Amino acid sequence: MIKEIENRRSIRKYKRHEISKEIIEDIIYSATLAPSAKNRQPWKFIVYQGEEKSKLVDVMHQGIKSEKITHKLMPEWAFAIPDAENTVRVMEEAPCLIAVLNTNQKTPFDSIEDEKRIVEICDSLSIGAAIENMILTATSYGLGTLWIANTCFAYNELIDFIETDSQLTGIVAIGFANEAPAKRPRKPVADIVEYR
């Protein structure tokens, strides 16, 4: 598994080749093996391909266009909208998009009590572990992935399209890479570890 961890890259250019249902199911199965707080398993995965994927991408595009005008959801992050627009291009290219829902939580744009916030954090950590399993399994199949968080700019439109009130944690793009990015720099271990 160390090889997959070292070889994993965030891929933003994809070939048009389809991915078999068996591989997609194996990727999702690996997600279900992740540890989760109190074994709540707070995840649901919705796979988008073909025409339905195109509809999802269009909803993302329209939501970002709206946010670009109104700055209603993410006013302090308006500077990141061009990156979100590039994410739409990535989503168009990737043959498979998997929306990841947190079934125990609702919109992140509403205030919640402190105790519920702690539960939300624990569920988010659990889902992060599940997504990492997905990404590493995809890497083992020779596939590229991109963990997409720019869904925040089109959050309400995406939730309406998906027809859920569960929290949309993000989307994972999966496909055969059409680029080979170099390894990104990492902080030295000596700078991030403290022994006591």
Note down, in words, how this protein is organized.
- InterPro entries: NAD(P)H_nitroreductase, Nitroreductase, Nitroreductase-like.
- It comes from [Ruminococcus] torques.
- This is Coenzyme F420:L-glutamate ligase.
- Keywords: Ligase.
- The structure is a single chain.
- This protein is α+β, with helices and mostly antiparallel strands.
- The chain contains seven helices and four strands, in the order ααβααβαβαβα.
- The chain has a four-stranded antiparallel beta sheet with strand order 1-2-4-3, with helices on both faces.
- The longest helix has 27 residues.
- The mean pLDDT is 97.
List keywords for this structure.
EC 6.3.2.31, Nitroreductase, Nitroreductase-like, ligase, Coenzyme F420:L-glutamate ligase, 14% strand, four-stranded antiparallel beta sheet, NADH Oxidase, 196 residues
**Backbone structural class:** alpha+beta
From the 3D coordinates, which CATH architecture would you assign? 3-Layer(aba) Sandwich
Number of helices: 7
Q: Specify the biggest β-sheet.
A: 4 strands, antiparallel
**What name does the CATH topology carry?**
NADH Oxidase
Q: Number of folding domains?
A: 1
Residue windows where pLDDT falls under 50 for at least 5 positions: none
User: What is the CA-atom radius of gyration, in angstroms?
Assistant: 17 Å
Average of the residue pLDDT scores? 97
This entry's quaternary arrangement is single chain
- Measured as a percent range, the helix fraction is 40-55%
Number of extended strands: 4
Give the N-terminus to C-terminus distance in angstroms: 29 Å
Give, in spatial order, the strands making up the sheet with the most strands: 1-2-4-3
How much of the sequence is in beta strands?
Answer: 5-15%
Output the CATH class name: Alpha Beta
Order of helices and strands: HHEHHEHEHEH
Per the principal axes of the C-alpha atoms, what is the gross shape? globular
